[in-house]
């Protein structure tokens, strides 16, 4: 894992990012696909460097007035593509800072283009800065980085630093789905997510055991099942 500190124009520290930005070297084909294809799918000027005034982006123009759903940390993009194909009337934002994940998705999109997807290849907090309040209708957070060591729990997505801006960007009545195979992550999510204003939708214990009807397993879920860990599916409402 590497740590990158984002700096603003004055050189002062802006945000820490602790996840992985790059894995093994991309093939020449993957690099070329990234260069030639990414622009078509780019969400726009999101990063601090491109948008230092943090001007809001216009989702109604980008997605022709469609409702917008967001997937945070889409990995290789399997679930994002699945949902985008299943819901052509919805606009999708996918956010993933891991270059190899973005390259994987771009490869799939090159063979099978998908008109209703826009991407940001950086930290989700930069997207929150430039989204208007109450603008997102559904959010997927699937197998977020577990940060198993106790001293790293504050890096998890289910902390107020991430949850408060997420809550503000979501429309009243909209849904947040969280999937994880880490029991301690479930504990922290059930404690922290409601603190940010969300309500957990669960009638009985079986609710978190059953995948959503329109679910497509992600790469991390397949790995979790292979290693005999139990997926948990949590649904919250704004
Ligand atoms: C454990 S992986 C899961 C990937 C995918 N959702 C799956 O289930 O296969 C977590 C992903 O979250 C991404 N991630 C970590 N921090 C992030 C951030 N601040 N903004 C957006 N994505 C982030 C990582 O790059 C990584 O790809």
What's this, in brief?
The chain is built from 8 helices and 9 strands. It is of the alpha/beta class and 238 residues long. S-adenosylmethionine binds next to helix 8.
**Rounded radius of gyration (Å):** 17 Å
List cofactors, ions and other ligands.
S-adenosylmethionine
Sheet with the most strands, sense and barrel status: 7 strands, mixed
Q: Give the strand content.
A: 15-25%
Describe the protein's architecture and organization.
The chain has about 240 residues and is of the alpha/beta class. The chain has a single domain (about 5-235), classed as Rossmann fold (3-Layer(aba) Sandwich). About 35% of the residues lie in helices and about 20% in strands. It is built from eight helices and nine strands. It has helices at about 30-40, 60, 80-85, 100-110, 125-130, 160-170, 185-195, 220-225, and strands spanning about 5, 15, 65-70, 90-95, 115-120, 135-140, 170-180, 200, 230-235. Strands 5-4-3-6-7-9-8 form a seven-stranded mixed β-sheet, sandwiched between helices. Strands 1-2 form a two-stranded antiparallel ribbon. Helix 4 (about 100-110) links the parallel strand 4 and strand 5 (about 115-120). The chain is globular, with a radius of gyration of 17 Å. The structure holds S-adenosylmethionine.
